[in-house]
Amino acid sequence: MTPTRFRRPRTLVVRLDSAGDVLLAGPAVRAVAAGSAHTALLCGPQGAAAGRMLPGVDDVLTYDAPWVGLEPPPITRTATRRLMETLTAGRFDRALVLVSYHQSPLPAALLLKLAGIGWTAADSEDYPGALLDLRHRRLPHRHEALAALDLARAAGFALPPGDDGALRVTPPPPTTRLTGPEPYVVVHPGAAVPARAWSPGRAARAVAALSAEGYRVVVTGGRAERELTARVAGRHALDLGGATDLPQLAGVLAGARVVVAGNTGPAHLAAAVGTPVVSLFAPVVPAERWAPYGVPHLLLGDPNAACADTRARHCPVPGHPCLDAIGDAEVLAAVAALTDDPADQGEHTERGATV
């Protein structure tokens, strides 16, 4: 069963986890919007700001799901009843539940059915019973952005003509007043999952090395990361920790020559504004699914480290070797390659680096 040919449906897209995951859902959301009269996005609190930046979204609904997130809330009848009332009031005809390869869509699908949404689609390895009207099977080793787009197509939603399927956000505000007019490189040292970021000391040394090489460096981070960004920036970089909301951060990233970041939301935000990414990619999750999508990028890190595929939130190996062992020479070579810098690139070995 696919959306009716006679009346474009009111469609709900569900993506309940982080900002990065919501950004990766952007191409699928645009496909849904092209075939819908109204497109709403149901996000968790960590993804709502990113959802508001996605083209094609008419409304963003928020629900802190007890089965998602680093610190999930308790299950309460009050929160569940409030969600049911919101979804029922939305009069949705269709719903797509987007999940990562290791997640189940069935808790969300159950709530959608209870709210009266008549047709629901999702990728599901688990038997869904009556919870899904379209049980889709994702292709093996599929990038998260493409897997979401595959589901949208299977549900009858295609990207409009001329849409290349890249990540995209609404135009960010100008941020020259924050960064200054001179060219710069961004280093984003933080991540919601510590295993996916450099240690603070390692990030600080990389910033010092970039500065010594002649790059002007801007360090970014959220309000809770001000202590981290101050330490990493030191006397070598401009510290914008806590100075931007998500749209302003998009503007800062859009103005950068290249962004150096771990596998975290700002890396996907950089891709969404078309900026090349040096991705410090810890192999706790597979790069084939979460690498920067649709922009020039280089992966740095040891893909065969002992932490590979563990989905660990905190590094289980002393010294965090998969990322902290990346040398300054590798970082400088990667930044030079992505900025077309004529500086010597032939003397360095880029361990684990791929484009």
TrEMBL record:
GO molecular function: glycosyltransferase activity
Sorted UniProt keywords: Glycosyltransferase, Transferase
EC nos: 2.4.-.-
InterPro entries the UniProt entry points to: Glyco_trans_9 (IPR002201), LPS_LOS_Heptosyltrfase (IPR051199)
UniProt entry tagged with the keyword Glycosyltransferase: yes
Pfam families given in the database record: Glyco_transf_9
SUPFAM superfamilies reported in the protein's UniProt record: UDP-Glycosyltransferase/glycogen phosphorylase (SSF53756)
Name of the protein in question: Glycosyltransferase family 9 protein
Native species: Streptomyces olindensis
